[in-house]
Design goal:
The complex is a heterodimer of chains A (174) and B (292). By secondary structure, chain A is of the alpha+beta class. Chain A contains 6 helices and 7 strands; from the N terminus they run αβββββββααααα. Chain A starts with a helix and ends in a 24-residue tail after the last helix. Classes of the chains: A alpha+beta (174), B mainly alpha (292).
Chain lengths: 174, 292
């Protein structure tokens, strides 16, 4: 909670937003609890601006159209504006604001930073030394299994997700 | 034309050193059956004898050995553009998490490699054969191991589905066709030699959108199969959605990927209520390795 407050404070300082902004990606009921079986307290419609208040597992607590409740994490996109963030909320994060640690580097202005661009990649020269280093860091399947066992990570059988709009047979097979 | 050739150069990168010249026009004239046969022969060649990649390898079924050679070339080229972050503990950690997730894929027998590269860009890359990279800029935005697993799982999915290998094959075919028509270059060797070192260009061109949506679907499932919280990848996408799309650090990512908002919407359509009954996955925010 303390971390959340820290980030919200940054957000306040930069954008005067009270909650992190988001946009509804689809029509969906707003539920009283983060569970599909809970009662609907309202509705959000695609394109509606929402305020993201909290995150819990696959659910976001939002305020939309005067109602507050829970919607699925993938039914809202964080950030405001058009296709992407507006750069204001982006600095402090949104789902970020409620889920992420405070990292001072996140609020540094980045407009002047030059990234890894197409030209860099086109002009790249094979670096055998770095490749050898990379291969030196390799971890075997059994080492990874030991790491997982030690920390209680258990492999689970989970079905592949279907491609939206496809029949079951056309879905991803992996 | 030049682009298509440069892609071919990846395949021939190691081949160019040998004296064997090849004629792309001739490849085209091979009857289908003959071509397939030759490809299989090439694939069966023991590594000690295979001085270079078979010129035909991209035209039919590619052996795992050849796939790995292509991947090594692309990986070495990418590392030429951005070296590894000098932090052995970080690199080992990412390899451990990545290897565990890859063990849940259909290609658990590959020798997987994972690296964090020195760049403030926000991006991640996959090359054929199991070479996976993410930038320091992306790593620093992650908050727990489930998010790392989600990002790596998306890239592992590209390798599982051989998305980049298929792209190379298509490019090779197009390049071959263009070659036979234009006859600009008489001997493949010289042209290829001039273009060695451009393996990473494939990563700048990107895949089609459907391949990215597919990797999101498969990646979320791979991470969940490894015991992680399945919402790691979606949470990283939410974080990206908050950034200005014109942020320089996202320039290459958005040149090669659909927007974060589109990816969230598409993943949401696929997930629906399907993750509701999953066991609670792990996030490990405390042991997550932080870059100093």
């Amino acid at each position: 909670m303390k971390r959340v407050c820290g980030i919200l404070a940054l957000s306040l300082a930069s954008s005067l937003a009270l909650a992190a902004p988001g946009v509804a990606l689809k029509d969906e009921n707003i539920l009283s609890k983060p569970a599909a079986t809970s009662a609907a307290v309202g509705k959000m419609s695609k394109g509606m601006p929402v305020d993201i208040v909290a995150k819990q597992g696959g659910w976001l607590q939002v305020k939309a159209g005067g109602k507050q409740g829970w919607v699925r994490l993938l039914s809202v996109r964080a950030g405001s504006g058009g296709a992407g963030g507006n750069g204001l909320a982006g600095v402090a994060g949104v789902a970020g604001a409620v889920t992420q640690k405070s990292d001072p580097s996140r609020v540094v202005a980045v407009a002047g930073v030059r990234g890894l661009n197409e030209e860099d990649l086109k002009g790249a020269k094979f670096n055998a030394e770095e490749l050898a280093k990379l291969e030196g860091y390799a971890v075997s399947a059994s080492q990874a299994k030991a790491f997982a066992d030690k920390s209680g990570l258990k492999a689970a059988k989970i079905k592949a997700l279907p491609k939206p709009g496809a029949t079951a047979a056309e879905g991803d097979s992996l | 034309m030049k682009k298509a050739l440069s892609i071919l150069a990846i395949a021939f990168g190691m081949h160019a050193a040998s004296s064997a010249a090849f004629d792309l026009g001739k490849i085209l004239q091979l009857p289908e059956e003959n071509r397939q046969q030759k490809t299989e022969q090439a694939a069966q060649q023991p590594s000690s004898q295979a001085a270079g990649l078979s010129p035909l390898m991209l035209l039919g079924k590619t052996s795992v050995e050849d796939e790995v050679r292509i991947g090594r070339q692309v990986a070495g080229d990418l590392l030429g553009a951005a070296p590894l972050v000098k932090d052995a503990a970080l690199q080992r950690y990412v390899n451990t998490v990545g290897r565990w997730v890859a063990s849940q894929s259909n290609r658990k027998d590959l020798n997987w490699h994972f690296g964090v590269i020195e760049s403030e860009d926000i991006n991640a890359f996959a090359a054929p054969g199991g070479y996976i990279f993410l930038t320091k800029g992306l790593y620093k935005r992650l908050n727990n191991e489930a998010e790392l697993a989600g990002v790596l799982a998306h890239e592992i999915a590209h390798v599982s589905k051989k998305h980049h290998l298929d792209l190379l094959k298509k490019s090779a075919m197009i390049g071959t066709l263009a070659q036979s028509v234009s006859r600009e270059v008489k001997s493949g060797d010289q042209a290829v030699q001039n273009l060695i070192g451009n393996g990473a260009e494939m990563l700048a061109r990107g895949l089609d959108k459907e391949a990215e949506f597919e990797a999101d679907r498969i990646g979320a499932v791979f991470a969940a199969r490894a015991g992680y919280d399945p919402w790691g990848l979606p949470t990283v996408l939410q974080d990206m959605a908050t950034l200005n799309t014109k942020d320089n650090r996202l320039a290459l990512l958005y040149k090669t990927h659909p927007t974060a908002a589109d990816r969230l919407a598409r993943l949401g359509e696929a997930v629906g209520n399907r993750f509701d009954s999953l066991p609670t996955g792990k996030e490990f925010p405390d042991r997550f390795y932080r870059i100093k």
